[in-house]
Write a structure and sequence with these properties.
The structure holds 3 protein chains of 3 kinds. In chain A, 43% of the residues lie in helices and 11% in strands. Chain A has helices at residues 20-25, 30-38, 41-51, 63-68, 93-100, 102-116, 130-145, 176-183, 212-224, 226-230, 263-269, 302-307, 326-340, 346-363, 369-382, 391-416, and strands at residues 79-84, 120-125, 161-166, 207-211, 240-247, 253-258, 278-282, 316-321. In chain A, the strands form 2 sheets. Chain A has a 4-stranded parallel sheet with strand order 3-2-1-4, with helices on both faces. Chain A has a 4-stranded mixed sheet with strand order 6-5-8-7, with helices on one face. Chain B starts with 8 loop residues before the first helix and ends in a 6-residue tail after the last helix. Chain B has a 4-stranded mixed sheet. Helices cover 25% and strands 19% of the residues of chain C. The chains are: A alpha/beta, B alpha+beta, C alpha/beta. Chains in contact: A-B, A-C, B-C. Chains A and B meet through β3, β5, β8 and α13 of A and α2, α5 and α6 of B.
């Protein structure tokens, strides 16, 4: 039975952890102090790289590696942007981290800014997160007041400003280039890559876009060293991971565990599956291929989840109960993707629309066997990395995996001419 | 200029301050739309024109941005907007039933009650999945919005009860089962 | 996820090309070029919708996918991720597989097309684009033969007029964003935008929204806003370009709707004659009825690239108007009766007897839309047949012989200058394509611009230096007289310093700046100066000598050598007596034996109406009916530019061909031909029987000649404005009451109407509110219009546009007092 290992969630049990007072009392801004007073920017990047900390936003790219790719010789301004636009269905860890420990985020961003020579930081906080926005705004005000932001931070030569920015309801803005477009005041549509944000990001300038958790972890890595972080996790996925767990569990919440912890152990930390029993689970939010219960021994780390046939993604486990119709769930998911598709590129815009239409008919009992075959083909056709960003791949994940593991449910809908579980449930 | 404006002087003062925070003023567009919507209640045609004029953008440009984002409403949603998540974890925990209750109590989605009090919308994951069925009223979090609690919420809003009180009450529940039981016990079926 | 590398750059090295391999074939590409363009130039066409070579790539349609060696793999497969060739820059040694050699790419393209077609309506039979449609063509070449889609298609109200000129059919739109990108990136008129998101997205102008919610993709029948929800229509001078670049039939021209099929049209290349930009057109002639069905831009890298303004594109409906003059007319018993050409020439011979005998003088006024050959024929007709130097084209004011400015500054010169000073013109109103190209250069490359104009103009946002002098004081800006022009000394010094510091500056003088001292003052700065006429024929008219003081080939009447040379070529003497200019001819109209108008519209000229009423014998030679006919004694029907061959010389001095696309209406004839025949019948032949004959003769006289710039102050300096007076600024907007565009309904709808624009401080002082009716009175006349109060115009100046829906500043000015002091009073 695993225990939680609270690293970025360590202040969760303190009273009012979001205040500067509590933050300082619990060792806050020590990482930043060390970076600014004892380390060069290169050394900061190196320790983060050595720690093996990988981006927790889903891509899993080495955080230190990303920082190191900022061109040293560019005359343009550099920027640090925090991707606080958590929107993956089932994910709610970044929100808790922003609400609970906003100063830790500020500290992490300032460390990144120091490392890459940025004087401007932006937090893109999801528009619906009113509480997180308030706490971040207060924390930023406190930080300015106490000389942790602004000119000559902590009496050093390092000056940096921070702007708190809001989203307005668009899942796609969690994609880093769409986020940058949104931050520039445009429709949040992704940009072709290359060029990548590290060379041409915000205002066509070198920009580092990092996840909330990655930034908070980075500050602690700088404070405590690379080896300290490597005491947890696996060789290729060191450190701890905050997992959101929801759906059919008794105690849905965020838990922080070392990478490599099994899904089963994580579920146990959340009171286990509830009395409806587990039909399937998505390990990294709904956008990751779903897995059947015999994969509960899959480990929550990047390589382990791929080996199990899915992806770590947003490390958010959704437990699907036996009384949930998979076809209905996948249909509901397809509505999400077509609703959130930005519409810029053909395969996603039209593909998500088509997939939703087919699933709608199958769930309503108007499907034919040919539709199942067509659904697979359209799903594959829309994905395969033809699109501008990964949303189409995400959309394809649940559809494809559900057909693999639960083809019989689809076939039953078709043969029955109705959803076997529909009862009087009214559609959303 | 002698044209009448719908946004307040205060808005214009804040707008300038906000725009000044960014290296490029256009970045402030979403922030200004939020400020304007908070003041007027929705993103009206006038809001689009006026926000555009602050940043030197055409109304078509501003509307293209505003309509991209779900939070910006082009029609007044009523005094209280009830947003209920119907995405995965919430569907698993009864969002469909909650939606049915709201449809009964208020009307179809996006329709405001005749007294202008409230409307409801189905939204995507609010990142409060541990509070399934997750919901918000004017973007303030409401946990465990079961059908009964939804009916009571609508009734309370229409009765003019103070929103902070309503939310405090709703937030007393610490789990979904507790929320269900409490609602049963308090006989809130009629709302 | 991916291995991130900074984009590898070309190594440069010793070669100046980049070698790539495409489908096994070696292609030498330009370093830094896009793969899609390099392939196309190397003979491998990659299909595409959103990419357009004159706009930044966006990688939206995904049609141009290719397989590039070295791309990251698709997890779980042995394939590489496809790349969009429009966003890929060529690299030395790149190995590429297109649809021709890669089944993966081939399948991907099929899928993209199938997906594009799932919501695309089967409109081909009723869609204007059919037959010249990239979607049709690429589906044919790269698409699947059948669709597997069996659901409902997205439905929108269709078509929706988004302006009086453009129709939008959202169902057909494939969201390639070429139209919105053209507006954002090139024209700057962001009047259409992509609205909403995902499969619900559509292009639209600013509209009132009937609903909340982006929808959940559920089929709910016809969705989205309709025509009546539009708040601001797509009123851009360049909107028609979006129709030409739209790869489907989503954007179509209202005037062309259902008119023709591309395979029924013959495209005749020609040159537009509605301004001096010198745009190349394709006149699409429907072979079944011999009518010009539409005008499209024809690519000309020297002048308009591939763009047109809407006036040129849609303002030529007069060609097939029912108001065309199709037969000669003579006034008998008070009414105009149709006659034959023979009868018309006999009328002339009779009625011009006194002129031929030398008992009375004659006057010829030519309009500025005509071809070079017409100007040459007209001045030769005046001088040889009518034996007078009373020939002029300057109905709008214009250059005197003392202020000629050498043409020869080109578009390239302007766009590559390191400082362009725009003096006294709003280019977007007068030379829209020069404006467009400058705007693109300023926006994309930072072309440095300085503007000297009392009022903000469309290029103001890019101006590094901005001077707003009092109207009519442009000379003082050049000579540094700050007090007269109402500026601060430092402002003028800054401009002069910038001109000094620049290595390659160009000064563009607008058509308003035509007083001799103003032109001289700017020329005295010693840098390249180009005088920009508004009208298409002005340079041609000057070069051909359609001017009382000028002879063909930039020669001067007052110079004996010049006159002798002409006489030698013509074998007849050139009349010695100095000629009258337009104002003088109008004043003398009652005394002239004949006043002959060749394509000249005098109704819009100060004193024009009086002159017409007084004329002893008025000959009107024109293309269409107009108020001119009211006093005409003889009417001769002329052919339009679409009905005859010739040449036009644009603002650069560049000669371009005008080609006949259709037969002349009725028995109309080309202007030069009418004059040539008239001369012959009068017994004083001038040659010019064909356009080639006229052109050759003129060319001989132009050989080794160039216009010279001569200084000389002949007008007194303008007075400072009186206490409550404002100085009048007036010029033509692109859309006005002009004779040619009167028949284009779409353009008429977009013609603004008159107003008086004044500065906020002046308005306060004069107690005038925005939108209030005001009376604007000059020493010459008065008009009543609505006031527009703004800070976009300087204090001390009021702007009234010329000729808007019958209200015109013509009533406030005279030929020699074009910027009078006016009193503006609230009504």
């Amino acid at each position: 039975m695993a225990n939680e290992t609270l690293v970025v969630l360590k202040r969760r049990e303190l009273a009012e952890p979001w205040t500067l007072k509590t933050f300082l009392e619990s060792g806050g801004y020590q990482g930043l102090r060390k970076a600014l007073t004892e380390m060069t920017p290169e050394e900061v990047i190196k320790v983060v790289q050595d720690s093996g900390l990988r981006g927790r936003g889903g891509a899993g790219m080495g955080t230190g590696l990303k920082w190191s790719l900022i061109p040293k010789d560019s005359p343009k301004a550099r920027y640090v942007v925090c991707n606080g636009d958590e929107g993956e269905p089932g994910a709610f860890h970044d929100r808790e981290l922003m609400e609970t420990d906003p100063h830790a985020l500020i500290e992490g961003m300032l460390c990144a800014a120091y490392a890459i020579g940025a004087k401007h930081c932006f937090i893109y906080c999801r528009g619906e997160f009113i509480l997180a926005h308030e706490r971040l705004a207060n924390a930023i005000a406190e930080a300015y007041e106490a000389n942790y932001l602004g000119d000559n931070i902590m009496g050093t030569n390092f000056s940096c400003d921070m702007v708190l920015h809001r989203g307005a309801g668009a899942y796609i803005c969690g994609e880093e280039t769409a986020l940058l477009e949104s931050l520039e005041g445009y429709r949040g549509m992704p940009r072709p890559r290359p060029p990548f944000p590290v060379t041409e990001g915000l205002y066509a300038s070198p920009t580092v876009v990092n996840n909330v958790q990655s930034l908070q972890a980075a500050a602690q890595v700088i404070q405590n060293g690379a080896d300290w972080y490597k005491q947890w996790g696996t060789e290729r996925s060191p450190g701890t991971l905050v997992c959101s767990v929801s759906g059919a569990v008794n105690d849905p919440r965020n838990v922080e565990v070392p990478l490599g912890t099994t899904v089963a152990d994580v579920l146990e930390l959340c009171g286990g599956v509830d009395d409806r029993g587990l039909k399937a689970f998505a390990p990294g939010g709904w956008s990751t291929p779903m897995l059947p219960p015999d994969k509960l021994d899959a480990t929550m780390d990047y390589e382990g989840m791929v080996a199990a046939g899915s992806v770590l993604g947003a490390s958010s486990i959704i437990a699907v109960p036996n009384d949930m119709c998979i076809v209905r769930a996948v249909w509901r998911g397809s509505k999400f993707y077509s609703h959130e598709s930005c519409g810029k590129c053909t395969p996603c815009r039209e593909g998500t629309y088509w997939v939703e239409r087919i699933l709608e008919r199958i769930e309503a009992g108007h499907g034919h066997m040919a539709d199942l075959d067509r659904l697979e083909k359209v799903n594959n056709g829309m994905s395969g990395f033809k699109s501008l960003c990964a949303l189409a791949e995400f959309a394809a994940g649940p559809v494809g995996s559900s057909i693999i593991h639960f083809r019989d449910e689809y076939e039953e809908h078709i043969k029955l001419g109705a959803c076997p579980m529909a009862a009087e449930k009214v559609s959303a | 200029m002698t044209d009448t404006r719908v946004l307040s002087e205060d808005f214009y003062t804040r707008a300038k301050q906000i725009a000044a925070r960014y290296p490029v003023a256009r970045s402030a567009l979403i922030m200004l739309l939020h400020e304007a919507q908070d003041e007027i209640g929705y993103v009206s045609d006038d809001v689009i024109r006026e926000v555009g004029s602050v940043l030197g953008l055409t109304p078509a440009d501003v509307e293209g941005v505003a309509t991209f984002y779900t939070m910006f409403k082009r029609k007044h949603p009523g005094k209280f907007l009830i947003s209920v998540c119907t995405n995965m974890s919430c569907s698993i925990n009864g969002a469909d039933e909650t939606v049915a209750a709201l449809r009964d109590a208020v009307g179809s989605e996006h329709t405001t009650t005749e007294d202008g009090t409230c409307s409801w919308e189905s939204v995507e994951c609010l990142a409060t999945c541990h509070w399934a069925v997750a919901a918000q009223v004017n973007y303030l979090d409401v946990p465990y919005l079961t059908p009964d609690r939804a009916r009571k919420l609508v009734a309370d809003l229409r009765a003019g009860r103070d929103l902070d009180e309503i939310l405090a009450d709703l937030r007393k529940a610490k789990s979904l089962s507790e929320a269900r039981t409490t609602a049963e016990r308090s006989g809130a079926a009629n709302g | 996820m991916t291995e991130v590398k900074a984009t590898p750059q070309g190594t440069g090295g010793a070669k100046d090309t980049v070698t790539i391999t495409v489908d096994g074939k070696t292609i030498e590409a330009k370093p830094g070029s896009l793969l899609i363009q390099a392939c196309e130039e190397g003979g491998v066409y990659i299909p595409r919708f959103c990419w357009h070579k004159r706009m930044d790539p966006v990688g939206a349609c995904r049609m141009c996918l290719v397989d590039v060696e070295g791309s990251p793999p698709i997890p779980g497969t042995d394939q590489r991720r496809p790349q969009t060739s429009c966003t890929t820059v060529v690299r030395e040694g790149m190995v590429v597989y297109t649809q021709f050699s890669s089944p993966q790419v081939n399948d991907a393209q099929k899928m993209i097309l199938e997906l594009l077609l799932i919501n695309h309506p089967l409109d081909c039979p009723i869609c204007d684009r059919g037959g010249e449609c990239p979607l049709q063509d690429q589906t044919q070449d790269y698409g699947p033969a059948e669709s597997r889609y069996t659901e409902q298609k997205r439905r929108f109200e269709k078509p929706v007029p988004i302006s009086s000129l453009i129709n939008l059919d959202r169902e057909r739109c494939i969201l390639c964003y070429r139209c919105t990108r053209f507006c954002e990136e090139l024209s700057g008129d962001v009047l259409i935008s992509t609205m909403q998101r995902g499969p619900e997205a559509f292009i639209f102008p600013f509209y009132s929204s009937p609903e909340n919610g982006n929808g959940h993709g559920a089929d709910s029948g016809v969705r989205g806003p309709s025509a009546r929800d539009i708040n601001e229509t797509f009123d851009s001078y360049f909107s028609g370009n979006t129709v030409q670049i739209c790869p489907v039939g989503a954007l179509t021209s209202t005037g062309y709707r259902f008119m023709a099929r591309p395979w029924d049209m013959q495209n005749v290349p020609t040159t537009c004659n509605l301004c001096a930009s010198g745009c190349s057109l394709h006149a699409g002639v429907r072979v079944q009825d011999g009518n010009v069905a539409r005008l499209n831009a024809y690519t000309n890298e020297n002048t308009n690239e591939e763009w047109l303004c809407d006036k040129g594109r849609y303002g030529n409906e007069y060609i097939s108007s029912p108001h065309r003059l199709t037969q000669p007319l003579v006034r008998r018993d008070g009414a105009l009766q149709p006659i034959t050409w023979d009868e018309a020439f006999r009328e002339l011979t009779t009625n011009l007897a006194p002129v031929l005998a030398g008992d009375s003088d004659a006057g010829v006024i030519v309009g500025e839309h005509l071809c070079d050959e017409d100007f040459y024929a007209a001045q030769k007709f005046a001088r040889v047949a009518l034996r007078t130097n009373n020939i002029d084209h300057r109905t709008d004011g214009g250059l005197s012989a003392d202020t000629l400015v050498a043409p020869g500054v080109t578009y390239d010169d302007v766009l590559n200058a390191d400082l362009v000073v725009i003096v006294g013109t709003d280019l977007r109103e007068e030379l829209p394509i020069l404006f467009l190209r400058m705007r693109i250069a300023a926006s994309k490359r930072g072309l440095p611009i300085a503007i000297v104009h009392p009022r903000e103009i469309a290029l103001s946002e890019f101006a590094k230096i901005r001077l707003a002098p009092i109207a009519g004081t442009e000379a003082a800006v050049a000579s540094g007289d700050a007090a007269t022009c109402g500026l601060r000394g430092e402002e003028i010094e800054a401009l002069h310093a910038a001109i000094e510091d620049a290595e390659d500056p160009v000064i563009l003088l607008g058509s308003r700046v035509s007083s001799p001292e103003a032109v001289a003052a700017w020329s005295d700065l010693g840098v390249r100066v180009a005088w920009l006429p508004r009208r298409a024929g002005t340079y041609g008219a000057l070069a051909a000598g359609a001017h009382p003081d000028l002879l063909p080939g930039w020669r001067r009447l007052s110079d004996d050598t010049d006159a002798g040379h002409i006489a030698g070529e013509w074998h007849v003497p050139v009349p010695a007596k100095a000629g009258l200019d337009v104002p003088a001819m109008l004043a003398a109209a009652g005394d002239l034996g004949v006043l002959w108008l060749v394509g000249a519209d005098l109704t819009d000229v100060p004193g024009g109406n009086d002159a017409l009423a007084k004329a002893r014998y008025l000959v009107v030679q024109d293309v269409q009916e107009s108020p001119l006919l009211e006093h005409a004694h003889l009417v001769l029907p002329a052919a339009t530019f679409a009905e005859r061959d010739g040449t036009l010389t644009n603002w650069e001095g560049r000669r371009q061909p005008v080609n006949a696309a259709v037969d002349p209406a009725g028995s109309a004839r080309a202007d030069y031909a009418i004059l040539a025949e008239a001369a012959r019948r009068l017994g004083r032949p001038i040659g010019c029987r064909t356009h080639v004959q006229a052109r050759d003769e003129l060319d001989l006289l132009l050989q080794d000649r160039a216009a010279r710039s001569i200084g000389g102050a002949t007008q007194r300096p303008p007075e400072p404005p009186r206490d409550s007076g404002l100085r009048l600024l007036t010029y033509r907007l692109l859309y006005d009451d002009g004779a040619r565009i009167r028949d284009s309904e779409g353009i008429r709808e977009l013609t603004l109407g008159s107003f008086a624009e004044l500065n906020t401080a002046d308005a306060e002082r004069l107690h005038i509110g925005n939108g209030q009716q005001v009376r604007v009175a000059s020493p010459h006349g008065a008009i009543t219009v609505k006031a527009r109060v703004t800070d976009a115009i300087r204090e001390g100046v009021v702007f009234v546009p010329w000729a808007q829906w019958g209200i015109t500043a013509r009533d406030l000015v005279t030929f020699d007092d074009r910027s009078p002091t006016v009193i503006v009073e609230a009504q």
